[in-house]
């Protein structure tokens, strides 16, 4: 009797596979790509972890492509390779919209769903953007600088010129500073993907005194904060304000040590996690027309933008983030 029951269950399971409509929704043959630049950075390793976590839950295949440095042309080459593989979907962070947009459009025109994350190409045919409201994040940082400087002082920015998200962050700071004539942006320094530039320039600028004294350093990328903090620590003058970006372990420790005042926090894990699930949904339930401009459609099945959230971390709440980071590593 037991043997008969076992055979019955086996045949029932086989029937579920063979009957149309009863097959499993997902398969390891479904391949999704995450394409970015600087993929070796802790920020991107966190985003990749979110992407792969969602893939494991769905039983699909997650692949990551992109250079270990800030190199839009290399990212373009990786994106082209991903498109040629005809995957189920692509999640891409846009290091340079002018460089990557044509290939994003080509992918969508070829029937491959594309969603941008972290950094957008708003003029492309991508379906929508998942990430930070970078303009508001910049305004949040700007208000912090004004508060800590008392509305007056010389400010230096470190950025990645031409990258859409850092450009929006800078605009957010400038929007807030516009009402405070006592805040003077002395220079916006393009680190060109090399965070050691932040160390060298901070070290040199720390020596300036009098009217030329730099009162605040702001890092608009995730890698510069640690290097700028090292230069300030070496100079032995922690009176200078340093606002960083993201929750890299070194950045959080810098806040704990009193070298970094605060950091603007994004949620890269969430971007990767939500991004893969969104692509999976589109792959299994595609719209009638993939390359349509859904931003101009009031009845669109997609949003224009999914905001994954922004917050500010300083000494008052840094322990909460350190605890969360430690728990995620376990």
Detailed description of the structure:
The chain is α/β, with parallel strands linked by helices and 330 residues long. It has 2 domains: 25-132 and 268-309, Response regulator (Rossmann fold, 3-Layer(aba) Sandwich); 134-265, Rossmann fold, CATH 3.40.50.2300. It has 11 helices and 12 strands. The protein has helices spanning 2-18, 42-58, 72-84, 97-109, 134-149, 164-177, 196-205, 224-235, 249-256, 268-284, 318-329; strands spanning 31-35, 61-65, 89-92, 114-117, 129-131, 153-159, 183-190, 216-219, 241-245, 262-265, 305-307, 311-313. A 6-stranded parallel sheet has the order 2-1-3-4-5-11, sandwiched between helices. It has a 6-stranded mixed sheet with strand order 7-6-8-9-10-12, sandwiched between helices. Helix 6 (164-177) links the parallel strand 6 (153-159) and strand 7. Helix 2 (42-58) runs parallel beside helix 10 (268-284), helix 3 runs parallel beside helix 4 and helix 7 (196-205) runs parallel beside helix 8 (224-235). The longest helix is centred in the N-terminal third of the chain and has 17 residues, at 2-18. The N and C termini lie far apart (47 Å).
Instruction: Please indicate the percent range of residues in DSSP E strands (runs of 2 or more).
Output: 15-25%
The assigned CATH architecture of the largest domain is 3-Layer(aba) Sandwich
Number of domains: 2
Mean pLDDT: 92
Q: Assembly state here?
A: single chain
Calculate Rg over CA atoms.
23 Å
Principal-axes shape call: elongated
Separation, N- and C-terminal Cα atoms: 47 Å
Enumerate the spans where pLDDT stays under 50 for 5 or more consecutive residues: 1-22
* Largest sheet: number of strands, sense, barrel closure: 6 strands, parallel
CATH class of the largest domain: Alpha Beta
Strands of the widest sheet, in order across it, are 2-1-3-4-5-11
Number of helices: 11
CATH topology of the largest domain: Rossmann fold
Give me the count of strands. 12
Q: Roughly how much helix do the residues carry, as a percent range?
A: 40-55%
Overall SS class:
alpha/beta
> What name goes with the CATH superfamily of the largest domain?
Response regulator
Secondary-structure element series? HEHEHEHEEHEHEHEHEHEHEEH
